[in-house]
Amino acid sequence: MSPLESYSVRLAHSRAAALFESKIATMQHKIFCFLKLIKTESATAVQRAFRLRFNIQPPTRNSICRWNHQFEQIGYLCKGKSSGQPRVSEEKVRRIQESFERSSRKSTRRASRELGIPQPNVRRVLRRRLLFN
Is the pTM of this model over 0.85? Predict the structure, then answer.
């Protein structure tokens, strides 16, 4: 194989690896990797077995080790529910509503200062919860 052909093959493999990284691994892939890692104790051996079994580019060593660590720490491979953005309490929504009922032309900046609630939260509550536009 010429150096140019060798380079083309390596480039194709690196692109395939990047493609796999951008996709979410299925639960079947994670379970396969986890069980193989327990059996072989080698991420490289897991990658080889994965490539043979699924005929696609295997996950990175980092991903395989992360899944193993996740299982050891929390006891499952599923991605847990992320905390996301903290909710604004009903009490704060009520305070914002009362503030704008008294003075509907008040700015969100002024309401934020008066109520001690961050301005983005005031704006979000007005638009999404109270449907002010």
Answer: no
